[in-house]
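ok so dumb question maybe but i'm new to this and my supervisor (M.) told me to 'just get the structure for NMDA receptor-regulated protein 1-domain-containing protein' and walked off. so i did the thing. is this what she meant?? sequence i used:
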Amino acid sequence: MRELPSKESALFKQILKYYEFKQYKKGLKATEQILKKYPEHGETLAMKGLFLNHMDKKDDAREFVRKGLKSDLKSHICWHVYGLLHRSDKNYGEALKCYTQALKIDKDNMQILQDYSLLQIQMRNYEAFNESRHHLLQLRPNNQRYWIGLAISYHLLGNYETAEKVLKTYEDTLKPGQPNYEHSEMLLYHNLIIDESGNTEAALEHLDSIKSNVCDRRIWKEKRAQFLLKLHRLQDAEAAYEELINDNPDCYSYYEGLQIAKGINTSMNNYLNVEDNSLDDLTPECEEKIIALYKDLAQKYPKSNAIKLFPLLYTTGDNFKMFADEYIQAALRKGVPSLFVNLKKLYNDPQKEDIIEQLVEGYLECLKNNGTFTQSKSDDDVKEPPTAYLWTLYLLSQHYDNKRDTTKALKLIDEAIEHTPTLVELYMTKGRILKHGGNHNEATKVMNEARELDLQDRFINSKCSKYMLRNDQIEEAEQKIGLFTRGDAPDPLTDLADMQCMWFVLEEGESYIRQKKWSKALKRFHQIEKHFADITDDQFDFHTYCLRKVTLRAYLSMLRLEDQLRSHPYYFRAAQSAIKIYIGLYDNPNTGTISEESEDYANMTEGEKKKLKNKAKKAALKKQKEDEERKEKAKEDVKRKVDKPQDDDPDGEKLLKTEDPLGEAFKFLLPLQELSPKRIETHLLGFEIYLRKSIII
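this is what came out, is it supposed to look like this??
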């Protein structure tokens, strides 16, 4: 039976409203009322399944939706619901098929068309997305979102001219009024389309024409300065960048633009597409221009750190020494912990590195002898504060650590710790030096000392946890990181997984590899893969949100970021390690059944066998104790009504026992081949897999 009586028909319309307003329990109760009288009504069965799906009863939901579809194959509602069910399971391909079938029955259904277009943009099917947006606009030409959506579809297809025409047509229908952020964002997006089409002159003209309607004044000024620079209107660009610097004297990109506008040939010619990033062609005349420019700017903006640092990038020899001397002394006098981080970018030039070393060594000697940065000429010279000596030791220890002179770096940092034994940064630096020297055990101990100096510092706690993982102290690391996780979480790892804290999971997985605990390592790397998959799925809601809020430039940036998501270093490291494990499983299928201990039992002496048995017994007792603690924890969670997601493979044993290790490795390899083709590791891993698959390319 397809048609319901008037009473039940009205109730069914109410069911649709319950779903729209997310009142799933009321909707479920209403479906049961109809099904008591008409148990074979397909659309009601499908809606009941949809409500059950949102109440996390997946199996029952599938049963009811399929039953409903079977009862009424010609209902667009049943097909739409079946598509929604597939979409919730991230099965986008099947969902698209269902929506296509629904549209064959009701081709002008707005809700189905909207959901259809969302799936198309999610799967980056731009041509089909463009067709759907055309259809939506034809049905509702007065809706702003459909005009913008159509423009975006043309933009993504690279058809800039048509995209601009669509936006221009819509803008002409708007009545002039007070500037508002939504209209402003749409105009700036329009300007972005013109810019990406390559017509910079037209983009500048359009930008000037929309000035009064743009609310984001900073971005308007930045775009205008960039366009002027691209068009080689250097005098106007110079004035534009001077205005930007006046607004924000600490923005590095503004100074780069100003230098180019003034005709100063430097390595930062980004806007003019100069590929040579060396300073070899920096002439003495050009260097003098830079010095004069920044001396003038320093008088206008004496508090700007960028102005003090920029001359160090573009000067050489004695000029560099003069600016470096002034910059480093001021920072040491003030006690700036990040001084080495600022100077490190200069170390690409060995000459500058040597000059910095000579200067700081000289400071240390003079401070030790007479309390000043230079050789004192009279007793009346002003002495530097006692902390200047401490920060000089700190800077010099980092300098020698960067040169991997571990002995000298440790000597200096120990002297600094003896001078001020309560400064956290000193212990952190000592731990880093020890780590670079290969002594992970001592590095972990020192980093823990640093943590104990400030138990409320999340950063140092995280650093300590990372060092423990690299020293294969997994239990201690989980305990330390758990100090800053949610108190009501079932365990620290669950909370870290909820927060998508990938660095901890990645380090833990690599630690398990070193311990040859392959199953647990695979579990961690698959968790990271799931995090990236979740991030990809999370963009789904933004397809409608960004059109509604008209955050179009941010939306476009998000789409482009998502397209390159798995080029992230975290994914590359996880994929690389997982592929190596799967290749190892293919080469040695018994790896999954081998004990975590790697000893060759048959070749052991009786004493070694006895030790191994004792070790296994202790491990079993420890595991039993952990299981008991876990059960107690679970009981406490039930008392506190904590919903802990059930994991049927917590230790990754099922992952280790896969029947197709090369197939699993290939899943990790594909994103690397697509997004990281310039890395040699990608091709080496691919070679290892294809070699075993006996594929000739």
